[in-house]
Structure formats: structure tokens, C-alpha cells
Design a protein that fits this description.
heterodimer; A: alpha/beta; 6-stranded mixed beta sheet; 11 helices; 10 strands; 21% strand; B: alpha/beta; Rossmann fold; 2 domains; 38% helix; globular
């Protein structure tokens, strides 16, 4: 299978700045993968995300080196409007993204810009409302919704464009824990249903550890670690650069120091329970 | 040595609040918080957390009931006067920042309170260094990242040394290392005898830093207890749309061998070791 996103020595610095915001990034993301990008503030996560739909270099000016191909298109040679149909972006604060007077209009907005016929627009709006389970919000005013609902509307508006890739930059920063969990569960189920590639930027690893296929850790503009979550979370480098490892991984390591080895590092409560029961019955 | 006063410095007496004739946001809140306590306020989106803390410096006055700060009814005093005692760091730093440089921002309150310039510069230096902002002292707060702006907002409150410090969602946009830094600052303020109230969704952060927790739900105090008791009471957490932290959640699956109120990784490890070696 060919990667849907491929970066070859990708570097970028914003105009007027000396420092490279991202440096020599090499990565391959395959269709249908759920990828988590994490790292300390200022590590270049947001800059990298801005490259995926061509906001860099077309909106944010600066110097771009290397090559980034997204669904076969070189971002340097293709405008954001073309890339945006393939890559949907959801930001930290949904309020900054919602502009229309009803949820329905909000979702239809991007489609109207594509000059699609009315019945197709109506069909797609219905479809995404149902995928995200927010049919009841159809006629509501986006500003009267809770943060979690707003974030779902923002995602619905993206999905209506039928992107192949969905990029979410800390989408749950303003949500309460239960709303965050619901959102992550929703992402996990829609990606299978729509064969969507999902790229998620997140600091709180405990909530997403078990739904990701690949974790990319960045520091100072570079990728310093990438791999499966179990490998990445147990790599000592991750603690050295100050990333909050999920408590279950800490427990796994703590037990290991006491000569108790679980079969593998658990990523969620069910796994941890199973492994501990096995250990206790030995 | 800090002498802790054994009387409540914050008292809410059957506080109701609504904006004009809309649905009430606070519905009969009763609270007594003693000097020097470090308390987290948890609750779902829209529970009334931000509305509650706006009552602490008189920005909002109860529609019904009373709020007393150091014994003084907020209805009979001004925001300016209360603000000397109660410093609030709001959720969105952009609502609070306005000066041209980080340095000016952080000295603003001190100048207002007529401190001499040499004291101002000493205080500002100390606070900026403590919050890793010293290198940005000459730049505009608006050129900084969200997490950095948030720290500037915290610095501008800490600089004038209020006795009650309130922060609304200070961990949003902060990475793990900065959260650790924030924990350190909270511990330091605690040692100085400050009363600290922090509104947050970050349950692991609460677990590590706050001895007591208030759960607010639909405008009411659902619980006010030791954090350990609250975070191990899942029924209560679910009511407030919160999720149990990983360790207590895991511990609950082993309730026959692990004691009920396990909160930390090391406690879980010890309980498991005991069970295995038995």
C-alpha cells in the first residue's frame, strides 16, 4: 500500500524567524491509520499540521524545504483549496471555526462553496449529522451548543467535504472528560466506517493510547520517536523530554522494577485488568 | 512561620445567581473555605464553575444569598478592594492581557497599588523567572503562544501577592513539563499560606496537587470532600460527567484484593505486591 502522506526531509521556517519550526521531517502515514502526534509546546506539531492542507506554504509565508505529498499532491505545487477537499482540519477552539446561524447551514457552508447541487448538499448534511449522532442539533444556533457539541459540528462540517484525511489539533482542550471520551470514541468508530486517515495532536495520552495505531513524538521541530504506542510509551526518551506517560504504563514499569512482568504494557483498563489477573493467578 | 487562621476566609451562604431573567446558573451554593486550603473545583461544561469564581472578587454579586471574603460581604465592597485580596486568573488569557510588553503587563497591578519602582522591578523579575517568562519580558504578550500567554496572565496576578489565588483552567494548552511547573508553583504558594482555588477538567492534575475537591453540577455543590474520597467515588464522578483517573478505575476491578481508596501508581503497586506475596 502506498502512503497517503509522505514527508521527505521537510523543513519550514516562518518568514522573519531564524529558527526552523520543523526540521528534516520524514514520515509515512498510510490510508486508514490513526496517528497521534505529541510533544512539548513549541515542538512544531501545529506547524506540521498546517502543512498537511497547504496552509503552509500558501497562507503562512516562509521558507519550505523538502517535499510533502498528500494524497499524491505536492503541497508546494497545489493550492490550499484543492488540498482542503482532501484534508479536513479541526482546531482546539471550535468557536473560532463556527460562523453560521444554524448547525445545518454551518455544515452546508463548505459544500456551497464547492458549488454542489442543492440535493447533494442536503444528502451530505443528513449523512454527517447521522454519522456524528447530532441530528437533534440541526436547527440550533452553534453558539448555544456545549463545547463538545460544537466540536462535533466542526467535525461534521469537515466530514461533509468527504476528506480522506482528518487532522485534529487538540480538539478536546476545552471539553469535560466525558465529552472528550465521547469525541474520541466517535473518531475511532467513524474512521473505520469511512476508512478515514486521522491525525490527532494531543497532550493527554491516557485517553487516546488505545485507539491509535502510530505515535509520533516531536521535540524542537524534529521527530524524535515514532512507532506503535506500546513501544513509544515505554521508551525512556519520552520521559526525558517531559511527556506525560499514561498511569497504566507507569504501573507496568513500576511492577517491572519489582520483578513482576506483565506480558505487555497495557493501554487501557481492560487490558490492564486482564494482564494483572494473569499475573495474580501465577 | 505561617499562622493559619482557623476561620473560613470564603463563605457562600445560599448563593443563587442568574443573568437577568434567564435560568439560574447557581442554585443555592453553600461553601466554607478556610485560609490556606488548596482546592480543586471540578464539574461538567456549564456547571457554573466560572460563574462561581467570579463571585470571589465581586465581579458578580449573588441574585440571592451572600458571599463573604475575609468576613466582608461582597455586596458592600468594591471589586477594586476585593481584588487586592483575591487574584483571579481567567480561562482565556486574551480577556485579561492588554499591555505592550510582558513586563508592563506583570507590573500593571503593582503600579496601580502604588508600589515603589524598585520593588516592582524586583517582584516582576522574580515572578517572570519563576514562570519561565524572563526571556520574553520585552515582547508583546500577543506574540506568545496560548500556553505562554496563560502563564503571563498567571504572573500578572501572582506579582501583587493576593492572599487568595483563583485560576480557571490553568492547564489548557500547557504541556506536561509546564503542568509540572504549575504544580510546583501551587505547592510553593501553599507553603506561603495562600488559599488556592483552581477550576479544572484535568483529573490527573487534581489527583496530584489538590488535597480537597469541590464538585459542582448544575449550579449546586454536589460534593466537597477530600480528593481521595471524591476521585474514588465513581457514581459521583459520573453524575458530574467526569471519568475516574486510571489507577482508581483499575483498582475498582480488583476490589477483593485492593483497598477501595487507592489513588496513586505506587499505592496500586504496593497493594498488588502485598496480594501476590500473601
Amino acid at each position: 500500500m502506498n502512503p497517503i502522506i509522505e514527508a521527505l526531509n521537510l523543513s519550514f521556517r516562518y518568514s522573519g524567524e531564524e529558527r526552523w519550526a520543523i526540521k528534516s521531517i520524514n514520515l509515512k502515514i498510510y490510508p486508514g491509520e490513526f496517528v497521534l502526534i505529541t510533544g512539548p509546546s513549541g515542538c512544531g506539531k501545529t506547524t506540521l499540521c498546517r502543512c498537511f492542507n497547504g496552509l503552509i506554504p500558501h497562507f503562512y509565508e516562509g521558507e519550505l524545504k523538502g517535499i510533502l505529498t498528500v494524497d499524491g499532491l505536492n503541497i508546494a505545487e497545489n493550492k490550499t483549496c484543492k488540498l482542503a477537499q482532501r484534508v479536513g482540519m479541526v482546531f482546539q477552539n471550535p468557536e473560532n471555526q463556527l460562523i453560521m446561524l444554524s448547525v445545518e447551514d454551518e455544515i452546508a457552508f463548505g459544500l456551497e462553496n464547492l458549488n454542489l447541487p442543492r440535493d447533494i448538499i442536503r444528502e451530505r448534511v443528513d449523512e454527517v449529522l447521522s454519522i456524528l449522532g447530532i441530528e437533534h442539533l440541526r436547527h440550533k444556533f452553534p453558539y448555544e451548543l456545549s463545547g463538545g457539541e460544537q466540536q462535533k459540528v466542526a467535525i461534521a462540517a469537515c466530514l461533509a467535504m468527504r476528506p480522506k484525511i482528518l487532522v485534529l489539533d487538540e480538539p478536546t482542550a476545552h471539553l469535560d472528560p466525558l465529552s472528550s471520551k465521547v469525541l474520541f470514541d466517535t473518531l475511532s468508530s467513524i474512521r473505520k466506517r469511512l476508512n478515514l486517515t486521522i491525525i490527532l495532536v494531543e497532550h493527554r495520552l491516557d485517553m487516546v493510547a488505545s485507539i491509535t495505531d502510530k505515535v509520533i513524538v516531536m521535540d524542537k521541530g524534529q521527530i524524535i520517536l515514532q512507532g506503535r504506542p506500546r513501544e513509544v510509551f515505554t521508551n525512556p526518551i519520552i520521559k526525558a523530554i517531559g511527556i506525560g506517560v499514561p498511569k497504566l504504563i507507569l504501573l507496568y514499569e513500576d511492577l517491572l522494577l519489582n520483578n513482576l512482568k506483565l506480558d505487555f504494557p497495557p493501554l487501557n483498563i481492560d487490558e490492564a485488568e486482564l494482564l494483572l489477573r494473569k499475573l495474580l493467578s501465577r | 512561620m505561617i499562622i493559619k487562621l482557623n476561620y473560613p476566609v470564603i463563605v457562600f451562604e445560599d448563593v443563587w445567581f442568574s443573568y437577568s431573567d434567564l435560568e439560574p446558573i447557581l442554585r443555592g451554593v453553600n461553601l466554607r473555605i478556610n485560609e490556606g486550603e488548596v482546592i480543586a473545583i471540578l464539574g461538567e461544561n456549564g456547571a457554573g464553575k466560572t460563574t462561581l469564581i467570579k463571585h470571589l472578587n465581586g465581579l458578580l454579586k449573588p441574585t440571592h444569598g451572600n458571599v463573604y471574603i475575609y468576613g466582608e460581604n461582597t455586596k458592600n465592597t468594591s471589586v477594586a478592594k476585593l481584588s487586592k485580596k483575591v487574584g483571579i486568573v481567567f480561562q482565556n488569557p486574551d480577556h485579561q492581557l492588554f499591555a505592550e510588553t510582558v513586563e508592563d503587563e506583570v507590573s500593571f497591578a503593582l503600579r496601580n497599588f502604588n508600589y515603589p519602582e524598585h520593588i516592582i522591578s524586583l517582584r516582576v523579575e522574580k515572578i517572570l523567572k519563576m514562570l519561565d517568562l524572563w526571556e520574553y519580558r520585552k515582547v508583546s504578550p500577543f506574540s506568545l503562544s496560548g500556553g505562554e500567554r496563560k502563564r503571563v496572565a498567571i504572573a500578572s496576578i501572582l506579582s501583587y501577592d493576593p492572599s487568595i489565588i483563583v485560576m480557571d483552567e490553568p492547564t489548557i494548552g500547557q504541556d506536561y513539563a509546564q503542568k509540572q511547573k504549575l504544580s510546583e508553583i501551587i505547592r510553593l504558594l501553599h507553603i506561603q499560606g495562600k488559599t488556592i482555588i483552581v477550576v479544572t477538567h484535568d483529573i490527573e492534575f487534581v489527583c496530584e496537587n489538590f488535597p480537597k475537591t469541590i464538585i459542582l453540577s448544575q449550579g449546586k455543590v454536589l460534593a466537597y470532600d477530600l480528593t481521595r474520597n471524591i476521585l474514588t467515588n465513581f457514581e459521583l464522578l459520573l453524575k458530574a460527567r467526569l471519568l475516574p483517573p486510571q489507577i482508581p478505575y483499575l483498582a475498582s476491578r480488583f476490589d477483593s484484593i485492593v483497598s477501595k481508596n487507592v489513588l496513586y501508581v505506587w499505592e496500586m503497586r504496593d497493594e498488588l505486591l502485598r496480594a501476590i506475596r500473601r
